[in-house]
Amino acid sequence: MAANAHSDKIEKVDGRLTCLVNFGVHMLNKVNYNDKQYASYQQGREINLTTQLMWANTFAAHAPNVRPLTVLDLGSGTGRFTPLLARTFSGPVYGVEPSQKMRAIAENSAHHPNVTYMQGSAENIPLPEASCDLVLMFLSFHHVQDRQTAALEIARILRPGGRVFIRSTFSDRMPDLDWHHYFPRAREIEMKMFPTSQEVIQLFSNVGLHLVTLEEVEEQFAPNLAEHAARLRMKAISTFEYLSEQEITEGFKQLDAAVTAKIAPHAITGSSDLLVLG
Question: Is the pTM value of this prediction over 0.70?
Fold first, then answer.
């Protein structure tokens, strides 16, 4: 995941020639969310009301003070955040998601009168120039195949003074996640899956979007280890796509033993990174 440039790419953004660095990132094979992940994602990655409100307040603290705001939920998946964004910012929200099956679940279950779900991707956003005040990518940036094109697209549709929120894991800031202890190769996989924070900051700086803040947000993933294990068993985390069946079986065997032994009866929490650009 080194940030050594192999080549540069020249593009035009708002009439300005922009040099984009090709970081030569060695990405894992793309996960097909139309295959298996869509079926368990909504339940396996459900966010409780308390955590939703925490994220809403965090986003609002970094957003422009005016209301309403037009928001793009880029990689909106099953709509976990899309209606919440409409309620928080009182304006239209566009949920853009490349997976037809994930988007269908959102359309059927995550309604709001100000929300519109659209087929598209980070590399091809179906919105006009300077049409959005905020862009949220919540655990979706690492799935983007052509990050240079995505950065250009996000810069294209963002209004002056707008903000980009990237909730992600970064390989140079990899947290010590509880579930990694039971699936030892998960951390190795995620070190390949996620870019470094500096790679992402540099990528967006090249298109005129600069670092506002990179902060750690304390998040609760489950109220206890038993519920955490039950949700992990749905394999709604894309890292499971790269583990062997033997690794998965052995990992859940150890996790179940920990649940039986009542290890970690307390809430399962961790630090989540939020990168704000503008």
Answer: yes
